[in-house]
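Operator note (shift B, R.M.): manual run for Golgi-resident adenosine 3',5'-bisphosphate 3'-phosphatase requested after the automated queue skipped it. Running by hand, logging everything below so the morning shift can see what happened. Input copied straight from the record, untouched. If output looks odd, do not overwrite the archive copy; leave it for review.
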Amino acid sequence: NAKAKGRTREGAEEQLTTGDLLSNRRMFYLLKGAFPAVQINSEERVDTADQETVSWDRSIPEDIKQKIQPKEVPAESVTVWIDPLDATQEYTEDLRQYVTTMVCVAVNGKPVIGVIHKPFSSYTAWAMVDGGSNVKARSSYNEKTPRIIVSRSHAGKVEQVARQTFGNKTVIIPAGGAGYKVLALLDVPEKNQEEADVYIHVTYIKKWDICAGNAVLRALGGHMTTLTGEEISYTGSDGNEGGLIASINMNHKALIEKLPDLEKTSHK
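Run finished. Output pasted below as returned.
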């Protein structure tokens, strides 16, 4: 079941499904029950009347425990961002390959743990800055004529500007879901996962859409910044106004310098 919950700044209708609400409720209360002092930001509003008891003993799977070094940080420095169902529009269209659920942990505004899970294939990518991961970068990327992955629902002017910047041979890949687009930059063993060299988004985007991907890229030595190269802070407001460009094992600064016109479109 889907209903409209509003419109994006570009005028596209935003969908809200039962899947969004059920996933959100379970994720929110599991985390809140385990870490009551931690700030949790979620895409969907949590109705306290629907409070659910979800127990978790905080145990960590052995394969993950072997890769990470536990670190203690003050609870007040931690912000958790959850997207219970990324690519809701595609979910309603039964384009399930784009759908992910995401959790991100930020400390003092910096993304340090990211989890991107594909519920319809059970694939999970996770990474922790200075702490390990189960995913890696691909062996090569094309910087000269990169394959650029963009949003299929609000691409803005990115396709036109990308071709002006990198040439007409540039391949533009329209796709749903910010989580899916980050996975497209990595070595992901999924038959329905496309591959890209750069991820560009030129319009306003919510932080729960991008925090997990930002953490994963950061842990692997990649970058996700605004279109002007600023790091995105995961404190304060829930939106990122400056668009984004994401890459890994590429000259990120050089990519940004090639995109002088994109930032002007990001606030429209």
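Quick read of the result: The chain is about 25% helix and 30% strand. Residues 109 and 234 are 4 Å apart (CA to CA).
Leaving this for review. - R.M.
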